[in-house]
Amino acid sequence: MPEAAAPSLDRVDGVERRVCSRALAAWRALAAPRRFPAGAQIDALEPTDLKDHFFVLSVPGDSARSTCVSAGTVMQRAIGRDPTGRALSELLPPPIGQKLLGALRDAVATGAPVADSGRWARPDGSDVVYRAVLMPLSDDQRTIDAVLGAINFRTITYN
Question: 58, 91, 115, 154: which one has the fewest Cβ atoms less than 10 Å from its Cβ?
Answer without folding.
Answer: 154
